[in-house]
Amino acid sequence: MKKTQEVFQRYEKKYLLTRSQYEKLREAAGDRIVPDVFGRHTICNVYFDTESYELIRASIEKPPYKEKLRLRSYGTLQDDSQVFIELKKKYDGVVYKRRIPVSLSEAEAYLYEGMKPEKQSQIFREIDWFIRFYRPKPSVFLAYDRRAFFGKAQEDFRVTFDTGIRYREDHLHLSEGDAGILLIREDQVLMEVKMPDSMPFWFGEILSDLEIFPISFSKYGTYYRQNMNHLFGEGVLDA
């Protein structure tokens, strides 16, 4: 069985596609990108922040270094389902993600009640320091339906397509379903390209031919701007 990846270091670029662009890109890429083992799946997240949204407010100011904390799950959950506590950082354009796999019950006991899990790795200690420093609370639930692919000739080149991006401001538990209010239009597809260094030349050519250009976009940042920004002033999408 393949070991769960807990540490990521890569570049990420985001693109907001129309349905037509999405279909043309998929056709042009052909079998050079291959679906991953999960196929189409739903990803659910609870983002944690301070009472004054300190983390996202700092992030949208585009500093050279920014970080966020979330609890993530894939698919339907039970108390013993595996979920991930993730600390995601970005420095000088490079994304660093460190996560620990735990059961849903362990994750919620820790993040909501302060009860630490039995297994305490180095990554856990980093997350625990972050929590003790910021004392974050559940801030917003975000879910989306994802199709994920990797390069046939380059497995560490990944492309994901997210639709149905939705949020809710209450029921901030992963066990309470994936319902929410749409964050972007139903006819839009958020593509994320994830790579260790440069993008494959052939994929760059497809983007150029279809006039698809990178944008600044963050799901949590977009939620904040659309719903909470009036409390603290103007911001931008990329967070």
Account of the 3D structure:
The protein is an alpha+beta fold. It has one domain: VTC, catalytic tunnel domain (mRNA Triphosphatase Cet1, Chain A), CATH 3.20.100. 26% of the residues lie in helices and 40% in strands. An 8-stranded antiparallel β-barrel has the order 1-5-4-3-2-6-7-9, surrounded by 4 helices. Strand 6 and strand 7 form a beta hairpin. The chain is globular and about 50 Å long.
End-to-end separation in angstroms reads 35 Å
Strand order of the largest sheet: 1-5-4-3-2-6-7-9
List low-confidence stretches. Answer: 234-239
Task: Classify the beta-strand content into a percent band.
Answer: 35-45%
CATH class assignment: Alpha Beta
CATH-defined topology: mRNA Triphosphatase Cet1, Chain A
The largest sheet, given as strand count, sense and whether it forms a barrel, is: 8 strands, antiparallel, barrel
How many domain regions?
1
